[in-house]
UniProtKB/TrEMBL annotation, chains A, B:
Pfam families: LacI, Peripla_BP_3
Keyword Iron-sulfur among record annotations: no
InterPro entries per the UniProt record, alphabetical: HTH_LacI, LacI/GalR-like_sensor, Lambda_DNA-bd_dom_sf, Peripla_BP_I
Entries under SUPFAM superfamilies matching the protein: lambda repressor-like DNA-binding domains (SSF47413), Periplasmic binding protein-like I (SSF53822)
Gene3D superfamilies to which the protein is assigned, alphabetical: 3.40.50.2300, lambda repressor-like DNA-binding domains
CDD domains, per the entry: HTH_LacI (cd01392)
Residue span, HTH lacI-type domain: 10-64
Name of the protein described by the UniProt record: LacI family transcriptional regulator
Organism this protein belongs to: Arthrobacter glacialis
PANTHER family: LACI-RELATED TRANSCRIPTIONAL REPRESSOR, LACTOSE OPERON REPRESSOR
GO terms of molecular function: DNA-binding transcription factor activity; transcription cis-regulatory region binding
DNA sequence: CTGAAAGCGCTTACAG
DNA sequence: CTGAAAGCGCTTACAG
């Protein structure tokens, strides 16, 4: 549809001929002048699209220097985003691609005028857009789709949807592995401290956790499942709530490493010890896991790989290639460190046959 | 010197007139053709510079969309660089500036063709360049200076020099504060584990340490001063060496938090405890300091502020403003946490009157 | 609203 | 190596 009619690059005169107008009129349309009849404007715009006309500026921008890709990271600069960024930058360096990084809070992202944003990207010759843990409405995504700007989301908050490509990790499998590890150590009272209810990845981890329990005939207890946010603060608050229960859990599976850190602090604060009094598993596998005491057992996401994969996908899409799938999940891996151990035997309910 | 002669924007013909050549000749010089005599080329280049000629592309690039600034971060993505990046991105967002991030290893940076790089920056309309803990030779810096591209270095390895602006922290004062804190706790045998001998900031910290000792009449011992690199590995190795001494130190001042982390691990490995058996002070004040056990007393650098200050400086320079100073040092601050305490009394040599 | 004509700024092809 | 001449692609000023 949008293919050029002939091989020779279309110039203003070509467009004019196709639209049946003069060159000056095309020039006016391109430059947004208002002294053009609506019907003429429409005809010219159709011709511009059909021929795939690019101004000399655009052509130059496209051919000069390395390709540029935009990257938007959720405002909070965590070790998680740093790992992803590292992966993207590494791959960008080998491909000679420039990465334009913006730090945008979710609120700001939502307020942004996506039409203008996409238009500016086209004008600056940007090849595509990578979003880290952000979301856009379908309409917003359309602003980019209409201009043929590929959008790839890493760890999307929304479930996969048409119009963009996403890269994630096997969150469900990771949640299940974490839970089964705890069960295999003898735990029965296992709690889950998840991220935002709206975050697809957190929901998947929760369901992995539930599947792990169910697969071993352990029924889930509502009071053992708290969802809130991916933060240390939530770990502190969540641990407080869980440990105050009449029958507190003997193990906690935290939805991310930062949350686990909060749990660790609250446990320590109470004079309890990990893993003696409580086993703890995190999620993400950030460098943090090696820095805590005890070192944190965690489900590692291949964050750098995910960054690389996202950039690779954007560059392919920008070249008009088709991707095998619009959503890819890289494998998580449970890394057992020092924060998990069998529960104290006196905590095992009488009658348990584990 | 480099101001335009007249107010009207210089076009190719203006340059030709000033250089005493024809327009086609100027065109050739601009486009890097080689069929131009060296002397002619030089004359044209002088005229281009004198008039501040910009091609239509450049002019457009300058007026379209947000300003772009290049950022090069030493390959290793540490919490240190993440903090600086956050500061830069925050400020960039408020100023509507795009930051083009590259991750370049020092070796790669050294090999790069700076002339080409600078030329490409001009052509892409980049406003300036921020380097994080990197260095360039004077000649390399000239490639940018000649094209009026401001370069600002954060925490430069080289001492301040002409041709670029640098942003650092009060390393000497920080080193002195750390040392005096340990002395005030009663320590006399204080060791220093510094960064690369070539790194200006590390040298300043070392001299702050020496000044702290000297000011309190404590003579420095060569075996207590080890310099190597800013890494955890060096902390491990350095601690091993120091603790194996016949008379080991009672306190270690580590040149950065990562090194302190290594020390902590080695101390723990030997079954010793911080701060009971050994006091430990880090440098940088990264989030790491809150994540260790015990939490790490550290000299905090205002890393985010440094990032902001660097971007502010680049943008000002790009607008032709003069800076008050080509080197600015932001204040460090000793943050006392849990890794420092008075030395065990039996370690104080007999006869000490502390 | 539209477009013939003139113009702008840069580049190309080529004669010397 | 240099530049007069021709050309390119877009824009402007203005007559209708």
């Amino acid at each position: 549809m949008r293919e050029a009619r002939s091989k020779t690059k279309p110039v203003l005169a070509t467009v004019a001929a196709l639209a049946g107008v003069s060159a000056p009129t095309v020039s006016k349309v391109i430059n947004g002048r208002d002294d053009v009849a609506e019907s003429t404007r429409a005809r010219v715009q159709a011709a511009l699209a059909e021929l795939g006309y690019e101004s000399p500026m655009q052509r130059r921008a496209r051919s000069t220097g390395p390709a540029m890709v935009d990257l938007v990271i959720d405002g909070s600069a965590t070790q998680y985003s740093m790992e992803i960024l590292t992966g993207i930058l590494d791959y960008a360096a080998t491909e000679d691609v420039d990465v334009v990084v913006g730090s945008v809070t979710p609120a700001k992202l939502h307020r942004a005028n996506h039409e203008e944003w996409a238009q500016r990207m086209v004008e600056s010759g940007r090849k595509g857009l990578i979003l880290v843990t952000s979301e856009m409405t379908t309409q917003q995504l359309d602003s980019f789709a209409n201009r043929n700007i590929p959008v790839v989301v890493i760890d999307p908050l929304n479930p996969p949807r048409h119009g963009y490509t996403s890269v994630g990790a096997t969150n469900w499998a990771g949640g299940k592995a974490a839970t089964e590890h705890l069960i295999s150590l003898g735990h029965q009272r296992i709690a889950f401290l998840g991220g935002p209810r709206a975050a697809e990845c957190s929901v998947a981890r929760l369901h992995g956790y539930l599947a792990g329990l169910m697969g071993h005939g352990i029924s889930s207890r509502p009071e053992y499942v708290l969802v809130g946010e991916f933060s240390k603060a939530f770990g502190l608050a969540g641990a407080r709530e869980l440990l105050d229960l009449a029958e507190p859990p003997t193990a906690i599976f935290a939805g991310c490493d930062a949350t686990a850190l909060g749990v660790l602090e609250e446990v320590r604060h109470r004079g309890l010890r990990v893993p003696d009094d409580l086993s703890l598993v995190g999620f993400d596998g950030t460098p943090l896991t090696e820095q805590t005491l005890p070192r944190l057992t965690s489900v590692a996401q291949p964050l750098q790989e995910m960054g690389r994969a996202a950039l690779r996908a954007v560059l392919r899409l920008a070249q008009g290639e088709m991707l095998d799938s619009s959503h890819m999940e890289l494998a998580t891996e449970l890394v057992i460190r020092d924060s998990t151990a069998p529960p104290r035997t006196n905590h095992v309910p009488a009658g348990s046959d584990l």
